[in-house]
Amino acid sequence: MLVLAPLRVCNLVWKDEADTWSSFKHFRIANLRTPLGRRAFIGGMADIYLLNFDSIPLLIKLVEKRGGTVPYDMIVYDEVDTAKSPDSKRIAMLRREVPQVKRRIGMTGTPMDRLVDLFAQFRLLDGGERLGRSFQHFKQTYFHKADYMGYKWDANDGAKELIEKRICDITITMRASEWMPDMPDARVEDVEAKLPSDVFDKYREFEKELVLELKNSVAITAQSAASLVMKLLQFTSGAIYDENGEYHDVHDCKIAALKKIVKQTEGPVLVVAVFKHEHARLRKAFPQAEFFRDAKSPTAQKQILDKWNARKIPILVTSPFSASHGLNMQWGGSTMVWMSLIYSHRRYVQMLARLARPGQKSTVDVYRLMCPGTVDDAIATVLESKRDTEDRLLSALMMLEAARGMGLEGDHKDRTPLKFEPEKELEGFWE
Questions:
Q1: Cβ pair 174, 352 in contact under 8 A
Q2: DSSP characters for 67-86?
Q3: Which of 82, 93, 245, 320 has its CB 3.0 to 4.6 Å from that of 351, i.e. a possible disulfide?
Q4: Is the confidence at residue 237, as pLDDT, over 90?
């Protein structure tokens, strides 16, 4: 069996899971990123082969060395939603150059942010039998253009039901609450980190004028609607980046709120930090904290994960971009604190599931640090709505308008952040 999964899931989850269950301990598991694993693949000497999605080119080279054959008869796509892009070159290489096997399984707890996300995932499983082989044909069949540029497509009436009917014969939905009724719930609480009046005045001025003057004579400018929301989110997080990628401290309200939570909490705390500057500032504020990003190798990552699950780390700082999928962290604690929220509902839900998952013995307490009256409120509201990523951004802007009673002028009139991709907007700034 070949398992394609996110890198950390390959390195930290599958081997441990096999060792946990007596029925699977005898399986020979080979990680294709290691020399030993590659030799096992070429010689067909393992039962389970592990590889991350980004290393598909390596798989193709190994298949070539075997003369175009594969030593497995089944593929499991773990966290298949990470392969949801229909334009992925790596997935295209996989479909084109690696022999297909009949048994294919895709697993995910968050199959989509948008209905169109299902296309590429199911094409991996059935070769396009149910939803078609062409993404353009799929969109034209079930969706219609929502803007003249064709950036945004809305589902036709009844499209959701039609798609569900097409894929239902190969889809199994399992909810932990149904199969494990005793699994603890997760309680989400928004904790106010109120900005001082002078800082809040600067926030509102930046929100309105698109320009923020800092104490050191540095001017921060938001160039577009998408940029404005991102800059405001940086502002509420406590620091803001200039055009050179350097961050400038604005306030420490969320750091102070986190200190109170840590002081009042019995047991380890998992801190979710989005921006790089949050990690840097948390190092100064919490010298006892450990950082998942410091573990560069698979061995080091396993060590820090094992240490966390042994409850030997009082504060572990991680990122929703590197640890949201697949990792078992439920034994290390039951308290999670979000320094800042993210747009991606999929990553948000996956991150919550690192603690709120089978094996957790306590109710999971999730604290979201929020600066009231700011973009934090807007992001939280639209995040809960589970709308498309693009819709969330536009909704956030509209909510800001309504809350402030301000008219969007200049760059704000350009309501076309429809190709806005949060993770690309954060590139270089997030962990």
A1: no
A2: TS--S-SEEEEETGGGG--T
A3: 320
A4: yes
The dihedral region occupied by 182, where left means phi > 0, alpha psi between -120 and 50, and beta the remainder, is alpha
pTM: 0.74
Question: In which band, very low, low, confident or very high, does the pLDDT at 421 lie, cut at 50, 70 and 90?
Answer: very low
CA dist., res. 318 & res. 297, Å (int):
15
What are the beta bridge partners of residue 51?
4
Please determine, for residue 112, whether its predicted confidence score (pLDDT) is greater than 70: yes
Q: What is the pLDDT of residue 25?
A: 85
How remote is the C-alpha of 132 from its chain's centroid? 27
Q: Is residue 54 within 8 Å of residue 72, measured between CB atoms?
A: no
- Identity of the highest mean pLDDT range in 201-215, 312-326, 376-390: 312-326
Helix (H) or strand (E) holding 337: strand 335-338
CB 326 within 8 A of CB 107: no
CA distance 171 to 167: 6
Q: Which residues pair with 368 in a beta bridge?
A: 190, 338
